[in-house]
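Our preliminary data section would be incomplete without showing what the modeling component actually yields. Below, a chain of 618 amino acids is followed by its predicted structure, encoded as C-alpha cells that our downstream tools consume directly.
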Amino acid sequence: MSTVRLTMAQALVRYLMAQKTIIDGETQPIFAGCWAIFGHGNVAGLGEALQPVQAKFPTYRGQNEQTMAHAAIAYAKTMDRKRFMAVSASAGPGSVNMVTASAVAHVNRLPVLFLPGDTFSTRQPDPVLQQVENPHDYTLTSNDAFKPVSRYFDRIHRPEQLMAALPNVMRVLTDPIDCGPACLAIPQDVQTMAFDYPESFFDEKIHYMRRQAPDTDELARALELIKAAKKPMVIAGGGIHYSGALNEFDQFVSKFQIPVAETQAGKGALPWNHAQNLGTLGVSGSASANAMAPETDLVIAVGTRLGDFASGSRALFHKDAKLVCINVGSFDAIKHKAQPLVGDAKLTLAQLTEALDGWSIDSDWVAKGEAERQTWIRTCDVAMSDRGTDLPTDAEVVGAVLRSSDMSKDIVECAAGGLPGELQKLWRTEHSKGYHMEYGYSCMGYEVAGGIGVKMAKPDSEVYVMVGDGSYMMANSEVFTSVMLGQKFILVVLDNRGYGCIHRLQTMGCGGAGFNNLLQDCLTANGAPAPKIDFTAHAVAMGAKGETVSNIKELEEALVRARASDTTYIVSIDTDPLITSPGGCWWEVAIPEVSGRTEVQEARAKYDEMKKRQLENL
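Predicted structure:
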C-alpha cells in the first residue's frame, strides 16, 4: 500500500480538496475555500497546511469569526447546497464566536464545515491560554458548545482518526435529509502530528445528490386526500430550491391551477407574477394568501418545516383542513398531524402530476385566488409608492430598491428586524435566486457578511443588502472585507433609530409601553438624546463609497450611482419606525396574565381568544 506522510492538518486540507461535485456538466471542487481567522489554536497547524495551496483552495480572512461564517452560510444557500465552504478559528473565544453561526446553518439545514482550534490533546501544558476548564468533566472544552448546533460533531485526538471522521463530515454536508453544519474540533497539537496516510484516502471523490422516491403506500394515501379536495392550496418551501424541483413545481401547480403561498425560504420558487402565486404566507405574509388560507380544505406543503411564521402559530388554517407534507425528511413530513409523503420534491411532484391527470379543483376557488392576487398586487404598488413624507416607510424604500433592480438577475439579501416582513410581502423576483433571506434563525448581524457570500456565488448579479440600523450596529466589519476581496454589493441602511420591529411588537402587539427598543426610550447619560449615527461615514471609513439621502427621490438617484460603482456602496436613509405594509396574521407572543396596563389586559384577552383557535388545530 502506497502511503504519504502528512500532518493531520495537511491531510485534512488535501482530503477536502479531493472532494468534487458536478454542476451543469462541469466537475468542480465541492469546497469553494476556507474562511479563517488565525490564532494560537490553528495558525501553526492548519495555517501552515492552507498556505501552500491557496491558489487552488483559497483562504479568506474575515474580521469576526461569526460573520465570516455567515458569509460561508450565505454562499452555500445561494448555491442551493451544491458547493460550500470551511471555516476555522483559534481555540477559545474565536471558535466559540462561531457557535451562533453554526446554529444559523443548523436551523436552515445548510452545509458548512467548522474547524475550531482546540486545547492540547496531550494536556501537558494545561491550563493554556483561553482554555475553559471543567472540574466535573475534564474532557469538555468550550468547543463542546458546538454539539447542540451541529449535525455532526467530532474531536480529533489522533491524526489517523481523520480517516473515519472525514467521510462522516461529507455524508452530512451532502445528505439531503441530514444536511447541516459539521464540526471537527482540532486540538492544536494534533494538527501538527504526522501519520503515514494511504494515498488512496485522497483519491478524487465526486458527490451526487441522492434522490429518494416516495413510498407507494404514502403516495396512494396522499393522492386520496388530494383527489377529494376542491379548494386546495400549496405552500412552497425551501426544499423546492434545494431539490432543483422548480420546473416540476411549476408544472404541478399550473396544470391544476392550485393557488400557491410562499414561505421565506420558498420565495422565488415561482416568479412573482406567476398566475398561481398568491405571494407569501403567514405572520409576514400577503393579504391574498392569508385570505385564502382559512378557507382551504387541503394544504399541500412542499419542502417546508412549517414554522410558526408560516402557519400563524398553528391558527391560520381551519381545524378541518387536511394537510399533505411532501418532504425529504420524515421529521418535517409528520408535523401538524400531516399525511406524510416522504420523498425528493423533484421526483414526488412529477409522480403526483402524472397520477392526478384528469383531476380538477373548484373553478370558483381558482377565480377567488386570481382576484385576491390582483388585489394584493395593487396593494403592494400603493405601499411601495413614494408618499413624499419627511420619513419614508420601509415599504417605500423597498419599492425604490426594487425599481432600481433588474428582477431577472439581481438579488436582495436580508435577515432580521422589520425588513424581512416587508421584503417577504413586497419584493418581486423573476428568478429563483432573487430573494435571499436568513429567517430560520433570523440572526441579526447576518446581513453584511451574507452579502459577501451571495456575491461570491452570483458574481454577475447586483446584490442589494438591506439592513436596519440595529443589525448594522451588531455586525458591520465585513464591509471592509467586501472591499478588500472585491465582492461589491449595494448596502441600504434604514435608520429608524432603534429596534423598530420589536418596539412595534412591544407597544402595538403586546400592549406594553415603549421601553429599551427605540433609542429615545433607552437609558442615556443624564437623559440626553442618543447620538445620531452617521452610517455612511462609518462604512466609507472601511473603504466603501456612499452617501446619505433624505427622501425616496434622492434614494432612487443614489441607487443609480451605487449600481455604477466598482466597489461596495452604502446608501443610508432615515425611516419611520411605526408604519408597516398591510397583510400578516396572528403570531403567538405570550402576553402577561397580570398587568396594571389596560393595553396589556386588552392584548391578553385577544391572545386568549386566539389560543382557543390554535388548540383546535393541535
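Residues 3-207 form a domain with the Rossmann fold fold (CATH 3.40.50.970). The chain has three domains: 3-207, 216-376, 384-574. Preliminary results of this kind motivate Aim 1 of the renewal.
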